[in-house]
Every structure is written in C-alpha cells, then in structure tokens.
Recover the amino acids of this structure.
C-alpha cells in the first residue's frame, strides 16, 4: 500500500452482516494487540470465550461501525477498522461483562493505520449510535499495557473492576456524547 493511500481520507459506515469476516479479522487484531501472534484465527473462532464476540453477527441488538479507506484502488472502500457492541447473558459473559443490559465494546484498527485517530472516531461514532438507540452504558475489557487504555479514558470510560491482567471499564452515555465523523 502506498503512503498516499495509507494516509488517504477515512470514512465511517454502519457494519452489516456482510462484515462478519472483517470483524473476525479485527477481533484477532484486538487479541494480538502487542504485534505478536498470541492467537490464531482458528483459535479465536474455536474458543467459546472469544468467538462469542463475533459468532452469528449481526444478531438483534448488535451495533457496529466500520472505518474505510476512501482512497482504495478503483474507488473501492477498503475496511481498516471496526468497533462494535454486543450484549451477553450472565451465564455466558464476555471479558468486560458488567450486566446483561450493558453491551460490551470491541474495537481494532489494522496496524498500518493506527495512530491516526481512527479508533477514537470509531468509538465516538459507536457511542453516539448506542446512545441514540437508548443504551445508557457500555463496557469493555483492556489488557494491562495496551495503549488503547488512554483512548478509553479520554472518552469517559472509568475503571470498575479487574479480570486477571485486564481492566474492566464502563462509560455512561448521555446527551453530551457526540458523533465524530469524517
């Protein structure tokens, strides 16, 4: 990919059922955030504690947004990041579970596009969509050392607990949550 397209304009669109494979890619990026392969795609899909974030996308209540590179070849919009929310039952919780009525956030950006504010835009856009759909709080889990922790704090997430080597955080959505879009 050329430097020009790497730094090309970025758009955000709603995630749909056709994005399920890309969400698996992004979940893999989220779990391998250190840049080393701790998990394979096969492991992510086979393990019930990780596959629950993407299995059967887009079920009722799932909300997601996709960042796209608008400077793709032949006018193609190339997906470069995603943020999505999914609710879990108490009997089958995600890593950042706090309550059945609090959906959990997952987010990742492809490595060569990080550091451009894309993740911030995705999460803000998703927070606004969630608020507009009547969701009052969202949660997440972030591992110790993950630089995304700063992003989440800057967006109003606060620590509510620990789960192993990860922090569980919650953001309250209110009328001040605003869309950031390009």
């Amino acid at each position: 990919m050329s430097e020009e397209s790497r730094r090309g304009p970025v758009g955000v669109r709603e995630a749909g059922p056709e994005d399920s494979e890309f969400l698996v890619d992004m979940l893999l990026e989220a779990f391998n955030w250190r840049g080393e392969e701790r998990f394979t795609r096969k492991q992510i899909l086979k393990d019930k504690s990780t596959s629950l974030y993407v299995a059967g996308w887009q079920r009722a209540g799932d909300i997601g947004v996709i960042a796209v590179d608008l400077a793709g070849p032949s006018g193609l919009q190339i997906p470069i990041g995603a943020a999505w929310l999914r609710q879990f039952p108490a009997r089958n919780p995600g890593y950042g579970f706090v309550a059945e009525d609090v959906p959990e956030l997952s987010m990742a950006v492809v490595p060569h596009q990080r550091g451009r504010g894309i993740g911030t835009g995705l999460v803000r856009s998703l927070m606004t969509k969630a608020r507009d759909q009547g969701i009052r709080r969202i949660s997440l889990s972030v591992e110790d050392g993950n630089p995304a922790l700063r992003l989440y704090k800057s967006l109003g997430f606060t620590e509510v607990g620990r789960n192993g080597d990860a922090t569980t955080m919650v953001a309250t959505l209110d009328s001040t949550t605003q869309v950031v879009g390009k």
About this structure: Strands lie at 10-14, 63-69, 78-86, 104-109, 137-143, 158-163, 166-172. Confidence is low (pLDDT under 50) at residues 1-5.
